[in-house]
Amino acid sequence: MSGQDAEDFGAENLSDKSQMIPSLPPYDMDDQLLPREPRSAWCCLAWTLVVVTMNSFVFFMNLLLMFVIFTVVLLPTIVVVYFGFQCHSQVLHSAARYCKSILDDNSSSALIILGFVIMSPLIVVAMAIYCSLARRLRLLMCFQPYSRAVYKGVKWRWYEEGGLCSCAKGWNTQVKAWV
Prior knowledge:
Elements: H1 2-20, H2 41-73, H3 75-87, H4 97-101, H5 105-137, H6 147-150
């Protein structure tokens, strides 16, 4: 009898485990992942050009934003290294008044070393500022998938979010950038 109780106990456990396996999620007909109607060859080519153009524009805008942020944050390093190289006698040896009266070779070397030493933390700060801004503005959500060009009925990513690249939703105060 005890052996039969053990078998029944194992059968109950097995049925409990099978109930714990999740089933497939219900599919909404608007956002279905099932096959969609493909576009014709010329229409697909035209939409591919639109998607590639938009993604290239978003990429270059991100690149421009990154360039501006890095330039502003790294400006002290650029200035210090520039004056260090300009006034050193072995490099450029400028005839400027401040190079002759204030900066000698030792102080020019110190400026060059200081510039390269403070460059690393400033690069980290610039990257943290860019990542924080990109996350707040949801800049990476502006990139469109290639499936937009291939299939009919694929919605733009920003369409449901409330505006172009979801910027119209407002600022999220809970966003943090860890460095």
